[in-house]
């Protein structure tokens, strides 16, 4: 039977690495994809996700258990991702907004207007990565992690009104970027016909 | 409610984050306004599209690599703590030694039994008394008196 998460956390707080190892097993996919959706890079996502777990273990005594372990862990991941974004920004110039839109339409739309699944995925990823960092983080936390406005507000230390307006702006931007893209259901329907 | 206001609230409406009264107002508006209903549809479409965002799978050694990194970090911390303690003890020892040296009575037995150390201290005092003396003559008195003691 699976051991309860609270017990694992308590054991990990006493320095029990095997208990923490079980927490890693349960959350590795979640953390890895949160990093990936926030930074958009698959090549170092695993390395950063591991770094987040190491930080979590070293700071687990500070976890007061007032929130869910996953929320506390997400906060560590988001802070780490923000550090990485800042580091990267210092190293190289930011890409100009809308650069990805220069890809010719013919490369993702076939003459028959059917879109390959992988191409859709790639376009969606690029659209999300094209959002400014502050909008993207809020969008990822809401859309993929399903956090409430209150949780996002606490995690990022911003007012709920800011969460609401950033989400609105993120969606408006995505709407214009993805307006011509078909959903996977539409593609599937079309290819079945 | 006007369209502009409704459009601004649609995102929170979609997330179920509007207060009940506002939510009812938006819902009523959407029944009669095709434009705003289309806006809501586009938000729903974005949500559906996000279902196609690529998903990564962790490698087979992810967990063991995390544990390895944790152990490495623990070793580093232990070493750093040990180093700090060692430096602390060494500094305390040195201070005790210097204090003892300062208050030793003349013709001290300990110094006679350790000629190597004695020579070293004498050289040290001579070097520094000369150096300090050039910039602060008042200090020579105390250092040279220490030197005499050690002799």
Give an overview in words.
The complex is a heterodimer of chains A (193) and B (151). Chain A is an all-alpha fold. Chain A has two domains: 5-91, RNA polymerase sigma factor, region 2, helix turn helix motif (Rna Polymerase Sigma Factor, Chain: A, Orthogonal Bundle); 99-192, Winged helix-like DNA-binding domain superfamily/Winged helix DNA-binding domain (Arc Repressor Mutant, subunit A, Orthogonal Bundle). Chain A is built from nine helices and no strands. Residues 93-114 of chain A have low confidence and may be disordered. By secondary structure, chain B is mainly alpha-helical. Among the domains of chain B are: 3-50, no CATH class; 105-151. Chain B contains seven helices and no strands. Chain B has helices at 3-14, 20-32, 34-50, 62-102, 109-113, 115-135, 137-150. Chain B is elongated, with a radius of gyration of 40 Å. Chain B starts with a helix and ends with a helix. The interface between A and B is large, with 45 and 32 residues.
List the helices and strands and how they pair.
The complex is a heterodimer of chains A (193) and B (151).
Chain A: H1 5-13, H2 17-39, H3 45-58, H4 69-91, H5 117-129, H6 133-143, H7 149-156, H8 160-178, H9 184-192
Helix pairs in contact in A: 1-2, 2-3, 2-4, 3-4, 6-8, 7-8
Chain B: H1 3-14, H2 20-32, H3 34-50, H4 62-102, H5 109-113, H6 115-135, H7 137-150
